[in-house]
Write a structure and sequence with these properties.
Number of helices: 10
Structural class: alpha/beta
Helix content: 25-40%
Strand order of the largest sheet: 2-1-3-10-4
Radius of gyration: 21 Å
Largest sheet: 5 strands, mixed
Keywords: Metal-binding, Molybdenum, Signal
GO molecular function: metal ion binding; molybdate ion binding
Oligomer: single chain
Pfam families: SBP_bac_11 (PF13531)
CATH topology of the largest domain: D-Maltodextrin-Binding Protein, domain 2
GO biological process, one term: molybdate ion transport
Number of domains: 2
Protein name: Molybdate ABC transporter substrate-binding protein
Distance between the termini: 62 Å
Number of strands: 10
CATH architecture of the largest domain: 3-Layer(aba) Sandwich
Length: 258
């Protein structure tokens, strides 16, 4: 009897899980897109209300590692082209990698911080700047861009002791918002969200000091799990190329890549 109950419980949970998640795909979205993706999904749902979209956010490197280790994501929306291309090369992706925009890295500080950003990147040397938040440069592309700029201007060794490293760009933002850091290396798209844009000041890092931050996305092998999952993933993948999405991205400061 006990064995029969165990079998019934397993059957019930399996059936319930399948039913609850029928008609759903999962996106892995980098931190700089964490606010924007809500606007994109809202626009998508206005056309395809029957489709369910789940979102997981984090750094590009963390997402890549999870996908390689079997995470059931259907589309990877990255802040670079390198990680999506690596997934394609290693057989984890079933589409071409599509670039969707270029965005700028920035230094950001709260309006009431008392930090003067007119000094440009040399603000990192300001005596009032005790802590500098930066996304992990080994996992997050805006952290990599920040590190490149600090090295380009020969400031890296001078400020290493001030760095507070966030796992991703959202955590770097939180450090600056809560006072755990005086300034943060972030991105234009992240700070353009209505909940953030009026709370701080920013300085755009010069193009000359870092590699272009070209964002790309790719459909993953898991999207081929079944016909329904694939159809939803394909609809969303194609929607990312639409004028609706391009307009949303422009509103957040992206330079559109066609």
């Amino acid at each position: 009897m006990k064995r029969l109950l165990q079998i019934l419980v397993v059957f019930y949970l399996t059936f319930s899980f399948s039913f609850a998640f029928a008609g759903e795909i999962t996106l892995y979205v980098v931190g700089t897109m964490s606010y924007i993706i809500n606007d994109i999904i809202k626009a998508y749902k206005s056309k395809y209300p029957q489709d369910n979209i789940k979102v997981v956010t984090g750094s590009a490197g963390k997402g890549y590692n999870q996908i390689v280790n079997g995470a059931p994501y259907d589309i990877f929306i990255s802040a670079d082209m390198e990680y999506p291309n690596k997934l394609k090369q290693k057989g984890y992706a079933i589409s071409q990698v599509i670039p969707y925009g270029i965005a700028k890295p920035v230094i950001w500080t709260k309006k009431d911080s008392g930090i003067n950003l007119s000094k440009g990147i040399k603000v990192v040397l300001d005596e009032n700047v005790k802590k500098i938040a930066i996304p992990n440069w080994d996992l997050a592309l805006y952290g990599k861009a920040a590190k490149e700029c600090l090295e380009y201007y020969k400031l890296w060794d001078k400020v290493k002791s001030k760095l507070v490293v966030g796992e991703n760009i959202n955590q770097a933002l939180q450090f600056a918002q809560t006072g755990a850091a005086d300034i943060a290396f972030l991105s234009i798209p992240l700070i353009m969200h209505e909940s953030i844009k009026n709370t701080g000041n920013y300085y755009i890092l010069p193009d000359e000091c870092h590699s272009p931050v070209i964002h790309g996305y790719v459909m993953l092998k898991h999207a081929n799990t079944d016909k329904e999952t694939y159809e939803i993933a394909k609809r969303f993948f194609d929607f990312m190329k639409s004028k609706d999405v391009k307009n949303i991205l422009k509103n957040y400061g992206f330079i559109i890549v066609d």
